[in-house]
Every structure is written in structure tokens, then in C-alpha cells.
Design brief:
alpha/beta; 300 residues; 10 strands; EC 4.1.3.4; TIM Barrel; two-stranded antiparallel sheet; 12 helices; metal-binding; globular
Length: 300
């Protein structure tokens, strides 16, 4: 194994939130709960199980309260929720989320289109969430979208990404997930972005969240691993996309990520066959084929 690669990677499974939130069809609570529990059965120890946003804006995340309250909890598993504001945080706390996340952007135009405010205003909005989370001893993860490119502005400044990452860490986020929201990144661009961010935030606090629009997600993740990143977001069956980014396909498939990590000899704790079964389950529920190449190759 290449000695520059980490020995172990933590996989953050985002399909129940980031994957399902863009579906046109309605998804019932029982299906969402079954998906989360199958993912945990496969060995995943961090699952983003829902989002406490206004259901008018993201109708597929309606019922997140019930999802969290219905789940059969496992010890040492993080059941995380996206909480865009203090009201969302209070709902997540009441529902029993044991970690929360806030979601910013490195592009001003994307921030306006996605959360209807500027980058600086979004950070101000997160401040009371961070304060409340600290009071309740709940960890907060920070997301930054459009870290390489924006559907409205084109290329995004790596220095801006680093600035937003630094501010989120200073506010109290323990980890920053860097998202190539529209999947335009290449290994060179991702490496340059990570180098800039790592000057402001220790690489131990960084994660990557890659979309596969141009088929670059796995090679971009590999580049991040070589930079010392040890946390990778992915979505089973390659679910997800971005409603504000035309043509943006889904997240990197968890099955494909696990297959690659297996080949690299990197530990992750996930059973690939059980993971494929979970992806097959949700794909059937959505009436589509599994978006994972590894799952299709292995007969899902």
C-alpha cells in the first residue's frame, strides 16, 4: 500500500438526507428508517439520518422527527441531522439527534440561491446553533458547498474556501466537509483547494464530499486521501444531487468507495455485501436501478 495513504478511513453516509432530499416522489418514514438501519447493519457508524429544515423548502425531509424517534439506536453510532438554524437545532435535539451539521457555501451566488442569504449572513445564522450545541454537548459538523466550482460563478477561489472553513472551525465546528457540489473537480483542482484550506485548518479536521457528475469522484477522493484526509462522505446507491445545480448527478456511491478502499487495503469497517443490499433496497423503493457501478457489477 502507498505509505502516503491513511490506514483507516471513516465513512460518513449521507444518503438518508443528502440522497433522498432531491427525490421527486414521496418517501415514507418506514422506508427511511429501514434504510438507516440497514446501513448501520452494514457497519456504518455515522449516518446522516435527516434534516430539520422547513418542509416547504425540502419536502422530502418532512418526517425527520419521526425517523429519529423510530430508529432502533445502536451504541457507538452517530445519527446526525442537518440543522440550518436554531429552530431546526431545537427540533433535532428533541428528536434525539446525537450530532448536528450546518451548511454553508464558498460561493456568494450559490449561498443566495441555496439558503437565501449571503455567506456572512449564513455564518451569523449558524452562531446560535453552535452556542446551543455547545451547551448540550452536541458535536457540530460544518459543510461547505461549491469548494471547486459553482453553477453560477464558475471556478471558486480556494482562498475563499479556506476562509469559510477557518470561520466555521473558530465558531466551534469540529470537522469541515468540503463539497464539490456540482462534481466539476479534478485531482489537481481538489489538491490545490485542500492545500489552501490546510493552511488555515488542520487536515485532521477535514472531510471530502464528492459528486460524480464528470466521473471524477473516486479519483478526487484518492487525491484527498494522499493529502491526509481520513473522512469521506458518500451515499449508498449513488443517491443525491443538487436541486440548484443543473446536471449535477449524485454523490459518490458508498459501494464504489468501499470497493476502492478494499483494494487499497484501507480499513473502514463496512461489509460491502450488506451495503449493496441496502443500496438495492432503497433503489427498489425508488423504482430505479442502483447507481453504484460496484453494486451493478456484483449483481445488485
Amino acid at each position: 500500500m502507498n505509505q502516503s495513504l491513511p490506514q483507516q478511513v471513516r465513512i460518513v453516509e449521507v444518503a438518508p438526507r443528502d440522497g433522498l432530499q432531491n427525490e421527486a416522489q414521496s418517501i415514507d418514514v418506514a422506508t427511511k428508517v429501514a434504510l438507516v438501519e440497514q446501513l448501520v447493519d452494514a457497519g456504518l457508524t455515522y449516518v446522516e439520518a435527516g434534516s430539520f429544515v422547513n418542509p416547504r423548502w425540502v419536502p422530502q425531509m418532512a418526517g425527520s422527527d419521526e425517523v429519529f424517534q423510530t430508529l432502533q439506536r445502536r451504541p457507538a453510532v452517530t445519527y446526525a441531522a442537518l440543522t440550518p438554524n436554531l429552530k431546526g437545532f431545537e427540533r433535532a435535539l428533541a428528536a434525539g439527534a446525537n450530532e448536528v451539521a450546518v451548511f454553508g457555501a464558498a460561493s456568494e451566488t450559490f449561498s443566495q440561491k441555496n439558503i437565501n442569504c449571503s455567506i456572512s449572513a449564513s455564518l451569523e445564522r449558524f452562531a446560535p446553533v453552535l452556542v446551543a450545541a455547545a451547551e448540550h454537548k452536541l458535536p457540530v459538523r460544518g459543510y461547505i458547498s461549491c469548494v471547486v466550482g459553482c453553477p453560477y460563478e464558475g471556478a471558486v477561489s480556494a482562498a475563499k474556501v479556506a476562509e469559510v472553513a477557518r470561520e466555521l472551525v473558530q465558531m466551534g465546528c469540529y470537522e469541515i466537509s468540503l463539497g464539490d457540489t456540482i462534481g466539476v473537480g479534478t485531482p489537481a483542482a481538489v489538491t490545490a483547494m485542500l492545500e489552501a484550506v490546510a493552511e488555515q485548518v488542520p487536515v485532521e479536521k477535514l472531510a471530502v464530499h464528492m459528486h460524480d457528475t464528470y466521473g471524477q469522484a473516486l479519483v478526487n477522493i484518492f487525491a484527498a486521501l494522499q493529502m491526509g484526509v481520513k473522512v469521506v462522505d458518500s451515499a449508498v446507491a449513488g443517491l443525491g444531487g443538487c436541486p440548484y445545480a443543473k446536471g449535477a448527478s449524485g454523490n459518490v456511491a458508498s459501494e464504489d468507495l468501499v470497493y476502492m478502499l478494499n483494494g487499497l487495503g484501507i480499513e473502514h469497517g463496512v461489509d460491502l455485501k450488506r451495503l449493496i443490499a441496502a443500496g438495492d433496497f432503497i433503489s427498489r423503493a425508488l423504482g430505479r436501478s442502483n447507481g453504484s457501478k460496484a453494486a451493478r457489477a456484483m449483481g445488485a
